[in-house]
Amino acid sequence: MKKTIFLFLSLFIWVACQNSPSTLDEKTIFRYNENAAINSLDPAFAKIRPSIWVCNQLFNGLVQLDDSLNITPDIAKKWSISTDGKTYSFTLRNDVYFHKNKAFGIAETRTVKAADFAYSFKRLLDENIASPGRWILQNVASFKAENDSVFSIQLSKPFPAFLGLLTMKYASVVPKEVLENPNHNFRTQPIGTGPFYVKRWEENIKLVLRKNPLYFEKDAQGKQLPYLEAVAITLLPDKQSGFLEFVQNKLDFVSGLDASYKDEILTATGKLQPKYTATKNITTGNYLNTEYIGFQLDNKNLPIADKRIRQALNYGFDREKLVVFLLNNMGTPATGGIIPSGLEGNIVGKGYTYNPEKAQKLIQEYKTETNQKNIEIALSISSSYLNIAEYLQKEWEKLGLKISLDVQPPSQLTQAIASGKVSVFKAGWIADYPDAENYLSLFYSKNFAPNGPNYTHFKNETFDKLYEQSFVETDAKKRVELYQKLEQIVVDEAPIIPLFYDKVARFTQKNIRSLGINPLNLLVLKRVYKQ
């Protein structure tokens, strides 16, 4: 009996080891912690960053982005766009294989064909699937597989940012055989074409990815990617716990800053603390995220309905101080409009700078004209931005304004902003795709919230006309000029107060190579290796 138990335990341990990356050379495993929940591994539901990061390792689309946000080939090796900007034709590679799965038959895999993209796009649009990503195809009139290697898309109207939309994980190719297998749960056991496949997912505990031996991409020397054998993701919800794991060399990578460890790892000027310089690296770069204060403009009886008050608030604080003292220099003062530095069309340096004298003059003009003695403003925020709000409150009260802070739970504040229940609110906009149109859409009058992203309910006929004109402009240089004109209108009319353009910070162990960094904060692991 004891011998039987011993043999069983030995077999159990052997099987467990075969399924664990711990049996691999540590130099071939990349480890990181994800503090937020991963909701799904199905790219049709890759709406939140944790899921997007994982799906980026598992799936491919027609095109992809490099670290400079250039659109480059992926499964489509080339493409053409008609002169009217409506027809896109993609020629596919013939050496892209799906991850192995018994649903494919004896070979357990097959190559990707144009019909797979037609199926994937049709699935994305299926109302029964209810993908949050179906909006990326809102300007698509039709699509079809011309043959096995050519996939064409017809737009209902020109949309110059369309290629950028196709780089999102929503547009990944997925296999019909697996998705329509009633015994397969695609959410937890996805089958894609990416550099890694899912080995094991214990929800809220751990996720293990393994190298895809069939992956099609190679490096400049002709070596097959990826270099890593495995990716091990722990799912500790506490950011500080994840950071401590990193400090103890149990994790290879930490992304972003949290108040719980911000001052522990960074100096006030945004440099690594001396005690970490020998063992850790920091890489920073522009992040396509603009943090701002928005004004809900429907109530014409409020002081903020007057442009002079909105402009005064823009002039009334020092963005440089905000970034240095409250963000440890992890940001860029927003001296332009909504479009962050790093995207063509921005007018950084042509917006508002600290000018309290001009702010007071505008306030006095308003008071004299309206015969108002006191101006009261309620700023709605979530607790995570309380330090910034208190700084603004102090600076604006120096101008003679009365500022009250309304702290709400994040989900409640988001709903209140969308439904127009708050008049002045703290918000941010992270780009979904690398085109300035993504930001300018916040001020188009046909995008009024809650049915669109225009939370301020800003309406300007000249803006709308130029915005619509940018859709049919096929000359890239002229389109950028239109974006700059649109941005200037936003600055002049001041429906928002741009606070800062965010930066992304990545902390790694000294031996991590080729991780890279990009303005969308995408995690790309196919070229990563440990020295």
Uncertain residue ranges:
1-19
Structural class: alpha+beta
Distance between the termini: 48 Å
Please name the CATH architecture of the largest domain.
3-Layer(aba) Sandwich
What is the helix tally?
15
* CATH class category name of the largest domain: Alpha Beta
What does the radius of gyration come to? 26 Å
Q: What can be said about the biggest beta sheet?
A: 7 strands, mixed
Helical amount: 25-40%
Calculate the mean pLDDT score and round it.
92
Overall form: globular
- Give the DSSP E fraction (strand runs of 2 or more residues): 15-25%
Task: Write up what this structure looks like.
There is one protein chain. β8 and β9 form a beta hairpin. The strands form five sheets. Strands 11, 12, 13, 14, 15, 16 and 17 form a seven-stranded mixed β-sheet that branches. This protein has a four-stranded mixed β-sheet with strand order 1-10-9-8, with no helix packed on it. The protein has a four-stranded antiparallel β-sheet with strand order 4-5-7-6, with helices on one face. The model is unreliable at 1-19 (pLDDT under 50). It has two domains: 19-234 and 510-530, Periplasmic binding protein-like II (D-Maltodextrin-Binding Protein, domain 2, 3-Layer(aba) Sandwich); 287-504, Dipeptide-binding Protein, domain 3 (Roll), CATH 3.10.105.10. The chain is globular and about 85 Å long. α14 (461-472) runs antiparallel to α15 (476-493). The chain starts with a helix and ends with a strand. The protein has 531 residues and is α+β, with helices and mostly antiparallel strands. The protein contains 15 helices and 19 strands.
